## 1
Amino acid sequence: MFNNLTSRTTFYDLTGYLIPGLMILAVGWTTCYVFGGSEVLDVTTIFLGKIGGVVTTLSLLAVGYVLGHFMNALSSLVYEKFLLKPFFLKAKDWQRRLPFDGKAREEIILSRAKDIYGFNAGDLQSFDLRIRAEEKMTQSFVTGFCFLSFYGMNRTLSLIAVIAIPLMAKLGWNLCGFQCQCICCNKYLISFLFVLLELFIALIFTYQYLRFVKYYYDYLGSTLLFIADGETALNRKSNDEENVTI
């Protein structure tokens, strides 16, 4: 499925940018409709009828893609730099989890990091591991690429769900069908329940986001367990040169 750079990039564009972009576009239009009234629907219908279906579809995809880039960057800034920074750093810290996965496994990974890169595992950056996996473990990199794509998508969808909270509150208020003396209290109650539902959705996406962050960085660390093409000969050559020097 992802046997070349183009297919991987297309998959990331779809999950990381286009889907969230279309979602925020839908939330924005629905917000305008709910708060602006039926006039928004009438104007939109007339405008879309004039430009045609093909142009409408292409325009929605283009706008959605651009908005997806913006929302992806915004969610990264809000969640990973401020709101969820401690949780994100904990999820990506695969080295901290090594002792809990077995002493033998930890020793092999630390030793392999030293052999391959020439310095301690604690000095490795995620890009160091990712470049090696992508260049020398093409098939297994599909797994890590999926984790990377899904964690970006879930992070952005979580932020979109938070942004949609005022919309859900208004929807709950408008959709309340109780007809009694306490109709105002009932509207507040329904709005509150709608907000709780939206918060629950945001929490689900947040949980998925942090889960896939953990999977992705654990995957990067696990690549050190395997000997990629050319590494055995390279290590043997280095050892032989060291013995000659001695």
## 2
Amino acid sequence: MAVLRLSNGEVYISHEDINRILAPVGMTVGGFEYPEALRAKVAGMDKPLTKEGIDLVFGELAASVEGVLAAEGFEYSFRRAAVYVPPEVAGGSSIFSMALAGQEAAMSAEMPAAGLDAYRTPHVLKANNIHFSFANGFVKGLQLANGVQAVLYTTDGEWMRLTPTCFNWVIFPVGEPVVGLSYFDQEPDAEGQFETEVTMDHDILESMTF
């Protein structure tokens, strides 16, 4: 169940209400059918990604969200599977694990706590992108109109779609690993990156960082 928390104290929990507020800034959310049999396979897969996990994500998991892509009219050029493994203790290192469609092996890297700061920087990714959560969830901070900020929490079985105008920042969940599948409407550059506008000095309210 998605939850949207605003800096003015308002809280919303229905997709309809959340989308009414977030669509003007370039984000929408929704749910997809996620059978218990698939949940069990995701729970049992190795994290970080292995060859078996890559096959599962781009096989059965991808097939389970084709209906959403069609309903959203989302035509993609690029897909990416990702697993984020939170630190076991506060202040410890986390692990990022990613794979592209067709790859036999994942790219995994350990990230010290200080290294996450760069990922938390407010930014706009210059591509249409949609992300499906299969374990844990995604958390995003967003700037709304009139100085209001927001934090959106989504859980497994939900998706979030961002346009190339969505100004946001990432908030990393703790606890269980995150398993996601992302689609983009363009190819990344040679380094695997998309054009991104970063705003280092944007003032994020303390209450909008968690």
## 3
Amino acid sequence: MHYRLILIFLIPFISYAQHKNCSNTFIEKKYNDAIRTYLDDDYEVEFTDYFKIPNNQKVELKKSFDSDFEYIVILVSPQDAASASIEILDQTREQQEFEKETLNLDSDFVYSEFEPDYDGIYNIICTVSYKRAGDYCSVLTVLKREVAPEPKKQK
């Protein structure tokens, strides 16, 4: 039990150490701000990826999703981002979700709520448009929680 608590405490530090070349304090602060609300709503971090996204180019990640869970997909972008989008495609490349946000100082992330219709591999496509040329670090995280059971109908 104590090992589990230690591991949960160390996850942010391990993540930062692994991705030091693609991270900064702004990204870390915005990442923590973005997930804090959802963690209070019984969501758990399923996975987190740090990567660089060239200006207006797509980065595609394949991830497994389970239909027994609700997901929040969050893309945190750097300070110089003007807009960001998340697109989720199923195995047949059919669009399941799409969210795009114009970013400002108050909102440096875009999120999408996703409940898959079936278990399987889905493609998450991230795109960021920057105010200045370059490729900057971004963070994609997926949070999950069990789907709440439907209330029973009263007679």
## 4
Amino acid sequence: MKSFSKYQVFIAFIFTVLIFVSCDKNKLYEFSYPTSEAHFVGAKNQSLQVLSATQAPQKIEFGTTDVATTDRLITYKLTSPTGAVAGTHYNIIGGSGGSITMPAGQSITSISVQGIFAAYNATGRKDTLVFTIAEPSLKSSTFSDTVKLALRGTCFEGDIVLTELLGNYANTRETFGTSPYGPYLTKITAATSTGLKTARITVTNIWDNGWGPLQFDLDWNDPANTMATVVPQAAIAGSNAGDLSATYAGQTIAVRAPSAALAVTPPTYSYCLGKFTLKMQLGVTGVGFFGTLYTVNMAR
């Protein structure tokens, strides 16, 4: 254990005394008050799915860094990079002409965005509204001066946002032949466009026993008949064909799309429901394929 010398104790005592005598409670000191600034409250990226003509509007909340005894005006700018038009695609409720009043004694107020159902019903249209604090009015803060609101209607299978496919599918179930297994967790880790209405996804943890990732080609040229076809692999990393038959223990597993001899319905998926029905044929690397269907049903 460290020990302190008498000299060190003396120095500490003197320092403490100086602290106490240097502050005069009768002396007036200057205080720094925060400036009055306006900012948005809540997430920077928000969304509104317009599903009916009577749907509740979406609030966009404004805040201030202080509370005042008088009403104050907050000015904002509204733009749409996708071309959404007020009165055609949305209406703003509250405020007036790009401004809103922060009432005296309050630090939060709001406007609301009402999506117009006819503009989004079964059209697949998507818009973005960008709200930005503007001047003259209260000064804009630097920490939350912009909100983006995504507007869309009923989900449309033919209008895919690839990034929305990413993430966990915790309710994955599979069947190899007549043997079911699950639920377990799979994950889509990548989704890359390969054409106007095609893409390739990467899925991890299929088989739930150490397999490396598998890839699948998505096709939504016909939104009513989407396709999800496995990309063939001659040897799946981390696989053990002994899981299929003890005869091939230690060898790797191969995968391909089901042969015509299996006469299965095509593998498909639903972007709107977040579900995939993946169908494959498994085999042993360099040996051949089993005449058994392997189906993986992925769901959020």
